[in-house]
Specification:
Elements lengths: L10 H4 L4 E7 L4 H16 L3 E7 L4 H7 L6 E6 L2 E6 L7 H25 L6
Parallel strand pairs: 1-2
Antiparallel strand pairs: 1-3, 3-4
């Protein structure tokens, strides 16, 4: 799978850095394998997103904390805020994942605009 594995202990720091997409997966999961085959192309199409694979067996506390109940699941964060979630029941097509990731980018931009409007510098 593409992306950069990150120890669960680094999760909180990483979600505050730009826009991150956490790909929750499990060994021997056919749906996870389907998503894994698509990730290199998706990473190339969405270079502003940082993808991080997480094996659910290696990070049970993080899985519980985020309420991951099925795999594959993708959870997107921007500046520390959860902004989107793609759950395992969703069809695993490239087009479906591209639509999800395009929406992640839109939400991240909208959140940036909202946060900029609320900053003290924006009111001056």
């Amino acid at each position: 799978m593409g992306g950069r594995p990150v120890p669960p202990t680094e999760f909180d720091a990483r979600i505050r850095q730009g826009t991150t997409v956490w790909v929750f997966q499990k060994r021997f999961c056919s749906g996870c394998a389907a998503v894994a085959r698509l990730l290199p192309a998706l990473e190339a199409r969405f270079p502003d997103l940082a993808f991080y694979p997480v094996d659910v067996d290696d990070a049970p506390d993080l899985v519980r904390r985020l309420g991951i109940f099925g795999v594959p699941s993708l959870v997107a964060f921007h500046r520390g805020y959860e902004i989107a979630r793609w759950v395992s029941g969703t069809p695993k097509s490239r087009e479906g994942l591209e639509r999800f990731l395009a929406r992640v980018v839109q939400i991240a931009h909208a959140l940036d605009e909202t946060l900029a409007e609320r900053s003290p510098d924006a009111r001056a």
